[in-house]
Amino acid sequence: MQLLHVTSELHPFSKTGGLADMVAALGKALAHAGHEVHLVTPLYRGIRARYPELQPANWRFVVPLGSGSVGGEFWRLKVSPRLTIWFVDQPHFFDRAGIYNESQVDYPDNAARYLFFCKAALVLARHLPRPPQIVHVHDWPTGPLPMLLQHARASGAWPQPPKTVLTIHNLAYQGWFPATEWPLANLPAEWFHTNSAEAWGQLNFLKAGLSLADALTTVSPRYAREICTPEFGCGFEGLLLRREYELTGILNGVDYDEWNTSANPFLKHAYDAQHLAGKAANKRELQAEFGLPLRDDVPLFAKISRLTSQKGSDLLLTALEQGLAEGLEQQFVLLGSGDATLQSGFRALAARHPQSVAVKVGFDAALAQRIEAAADFFLMPSRFEPCGLNQLYSLRYGTVPIVRATGGLDDSVVDVRESAERATGIKFHEPTAAALSHALRKAHGLYREPDLLAHFRHNGMKADFSWEKQSREYVELYEQVLHGV
User: Fold this and answer.
1) CATH superfamily of 277-464
2) Measured between alpha carbons, how far is 350 from 290 in angstroms, rounded to an integer?
């Protein structure tokens, strides 16, 4: 099967969240399974310098963009015989300090930037030596591409274009723009309607894909059900309910070549499910690194995340404050950034409790690995979570996840109340600091039962969320789309 994935970010070249990890790992797994896979993504600032192995493809192109036209160039990286990454080089649009924004302010020309990117991807799809059978697009920046392909079919410009699949990584991010940006698409005015890209009088990039892709997926089964409800549907629950037979939830996977505890260059002490001494040693290393007391008798909690309301960061801050005020003996390490008020809140908490709380604002991939390996419990109190990846990493690292039962968190973690034999983590249901505090107390109780804690860890480390397994569900979906099932 010939496949083209179109993504606005791709690990390790560009990343703001789990989208980058998912597309990179899925593409790798599909290629390993024997499919011909192409990935296309913008050539953002710094990529060429950091990855000198990129080669110019000697392929220049020009596409219409509103009343004018914009040129670009493809660069290429051949990862393996079946996996090629294409980069769209357009310095005016992509040679910038950020991907979508700077200082949390969106670039005002994002509509032009990502319509150009979609049109570049269409050029690539049209002129590859073996055109793709499936074009798989991801999230709002690539939402217009199914619409462009539909128009190519209707106009006769490409009578039999590829089938399209849109993956919704987070429905809350949609790409809203004024209707005055519609001419940038260079499509007839009559294509701007409620069964296409129009939503409440505005241009909505994601809506175009939700309406016109041949199939829709989410990154977990539960999230596919949740977005068909008013609570999680972000105004599009009606559209999604109408398309529920084309909507599939497929849980994200993990690239265990990168996320493993036995052959990991970022970890000083290797370990596995049968030999956990290395995990205890990694805990002491991290305690020393963050200036925390070297204690094996208290649980070490961790969070690696954007600091946002969606991620429940405010709930966690309140719960930690309450636990420390009550004298709970515990340690907590945070790696993340986001809302300025939340950043200040966590820093202030660490300043008041330097023996118990340590905070690093920012992101560091190597440190993230060390935290996962060192922590006893990983906290994900999300108000909603399409999939989540850190709970999957935590399971493999023997770090018991504490999660709110929503989206992919509910799909991937087994609470003891669901199965004592298969338990891997702790779930709570209400998005409140009180419910999270109760879950933290459960964790303290689990930590005081070493045999039971080892049982949870062993179950988590043996769970299989490999992309080799999860990618087979995408192949089945592609086959259904191609055969009109």
Assistant:
1) Glycogen Phosphorylase B; (3.40.50.2000)
2) 11
